[in-house]
Amino acid sequence: MIESLSPYLSSFFILFREGFEALLICVLVFTYLDKMNARHQRPAVIWGLIAGVIVSLLTALAVKKIAAVTHAHEELFEGSVMIIASGMLAYVAYFSHTAKKHVEGQVDKAIATGNPFLLSLTVFFAIIREGFEIVLFYAALFTSTIYSTLPVIAGALSGILALTSYCRSFERNFSSSFCLFWFK
Questions:
Q1: Residue 60: which of 140, 116, 180 has the closest Cα?
Q2: Is 13 in contact with 162 (CB distance < 8 Å)?
Q3: Are 122 and 103 in contact (CB under 8 A)?
Q4: Which sign, positive or negative, has the C-alpha torsion 45, 48, 54, 56?
Q5: In order along the chain (184 residues), what is the average pLDDT of each group of 10 residues?
Q6: How far apart are CA 157 and CA 153, in angstroms?
Q7: Helices 116-143 and 74-113 meet at what angle, rounded to 10?
Q8: Which residues contact 130 (CB under 8 A, 6 or more apart)?
Q9: Whole-number Cα distances in Å, 66 to 25, 59, 106, 136, 148
């Protein structure tokens, strides 16, 4: 029982944390659009979100295919994945430091030009970044020989459920106060 708890919790927190980061970017863009009275631009954000999820899933399939091809060099693949993942974490730390200015600048540009493509692109890249991190971390979980896949899948499903519940709760209870706090 204890040995299956570690992969379950790892899987749960990877999906919940990365999903929360993607959710936060989307909420920032939505609330800023509300503040700027540009709710008509929301469909562009949704299209960027959907496209980002699709590309992230395709990335997962590509990584799985690469992992299958490089099975003879499994340690090299795992090491490469870990190095890329640590680089992504460093990038996220930098991005988080400048996220507010980045989001405001991209949304302002999209509103000023009337081009919703810029807005879609902003959300698209944020979702792809988080999706790529999820793919890298799950690649490490699935290629590890000490973990069974069942707890990893159960953790992922629990993470999706928790994230969905959190999103619904956040939407109902905090979205207007969040907007006031973030965009003073």
A1: 140
A2: no
A3: yes
A4: negative
A5: 80 91 81 79 87 90 76 69 71 64 68 75 84 83 72 92 84 55 46
A6: 6
A7: 160
A8: 18, 19, 21, 22, 25, 56
A9: 30, 10, 34, 12, 21
